[in-house]
Amino acid sequence: MGVADLTDIAHAAYGRELRDVVRLHGGSKKGVYRLTLDDGTTGIAYVWRRSEDYWPEHEPDPLFGNASGRDLFLTAHTALSEAGACVPRLVLVDSDVIVVEDLGGEFLEKLLDDSAEVLDRLWEDLRAVHQRLSPRYGRPSALQPVDAPPVPDVVLQRALGHLDACCERVPRIAAERDRLETQLRQRHSLIEPRAEYGLIHGELGPDHVLVAGGRPVLIDIEGVMFFDVEWEHVFLELRFGPHYRPVDGLDPARLNLYRLAQYLSLVEGPLRLLDGDFPHRDAMREIVEHNIERALLC
């Protein structure tokens, strides 16, 4: 996508001519472009079009599989802002494009070893986000019915499907199939019911946090939903490693199930993404390999 494709969007957003367009790294379901205007100022355009989506067609999953789109972005933007987290300011909302401010700065993943104050603020923001509660889980604009299956049941069934898919493609996992299924079911059986769910980002790694003006800014927010906060914390453990900070009050049984479920998800999903023409293939293969090893150690 080039200047000609986004000229009208830039003009509508800023009233100026578009000089240059650069696609930014990342984004498997949407295109992320830096717009440079004729006066040198910049903005960021998120583009949701089929040509920007690298994922192969797949059976829809209302909670996880459709975490993309303008409406989800806007709902998440409102929910996170109301919770006190920092997100980029909206400049323009179009039918399949949103333009936000270009905050510049660096991704937190490049600054982890020298960003104690930013990490302090990030964990504070996340604590506030997770304390936004709902008696039902799901997207803020599409909560699941009161009689929907409990979150651990949803996670178990999803994980069993991922296990089946992994067994078809990864001989090492296929050789451990019965043991892994037993692990999933046993871990699930120890979980007690819960009546409230916290707001979570859904895919928060240090590559989804910008550092601007000394403050963490959350991006790639379309996966925001009310869910078990342990789901978020398992992902934070994975992505932040030694920089992750545990919190009190998490359910060990949920953490135990969700770790194995996420390992299997992070094998199945990247393998499916590699069936298409996703460009950053080595990174995806590395994710697959790491999580094969993690699953087999469970």
What's the short version?
Residues 25-226 form the Aminoglycoside phosphotransferase domain. It is built from 9 helices and 13 strands.
Description:
- With 298 residues, this protein is α+β, with helices and mostly antiparallel strands.
- It has one domain (3-296): Aminoglycoside 3'-phosphotransferase, Chain: A, domain 2, CATH 3.90.1200.
- Helices cover 43% and strands 17% of the residues.
- The protein is built from nine helices and 13 strands.
- The chain has a five-stranded antiparallel beta sheet with strand order 1-2-3-5-4. Strands 6-11-12 form a three-stranded antiparallel beta sheet, with helices on one face. It has a three-stranded antiparallel beta sheet with strand order 7-10-13, sandwiched between helices.
- The model has no long low-confidence stretch (mean pLDDT 93).
The proportion of residues forming helix, as a percent range, comes to: 40-55%
Overall mean confidence score, pLDDT: 93
Number of strands: 13
Separate helix tally: 9
